[in-house]
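Example 5.3 — Hypoxanthine phosphoribosyltransferase
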Amino acid sequence: MHPHLERVLFTEEEILERTKAIGRVLSADYADKNPLLIGILKGAVLFMADLVKHIDIPMEMDFMAISSYGASSKSSGVVRILKDLDRSIEGRHVVVVEDIVDTGLTLAYLRDILMHRRAASVKVAAMFDKPEGRSVDISPDYCGFPVPNEFIVGYGLDYAEQYRNLPYVGILKPEIYKR
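Solution (predicted structure tokens):
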């Protein structure tokens, strides 16, 4: 375990098993739809890479970079698009792939944008869901694990761009992010 963590919440093996399960469900739900999976950079990269290996239907991928955190441990409430999609989504069934749903502000903003761009449908697959952090009424359609209202890192989740490469997820010690 990394010395900056209080404890590990989910092991690499638990994360992989849950990712496989989500991939199977997505394969069934989108069997005849050729979905477009949109990975939200940077946090969702590890989840997206593992997830698509377990989707056994035709699908496409694209990426967006959206931020409401910056280098802070709390959302600023201001959502910015840092990288937009490379193609039109009009008429497409879209699955937004997120690392975590926390306040829900970014996700609500993104869902509205994608629907405005005339996607046929927009669903969300998030590896982690922190319902206690929610400030808007939105939840992922596909969820790996609910998490406590703690600052977690690993498996794509970061604090100031650190810890993303941990293959497991743990609770970051408060003294690290309250400096």
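Remark. The two ends are 21 Å apart (CA to CA).
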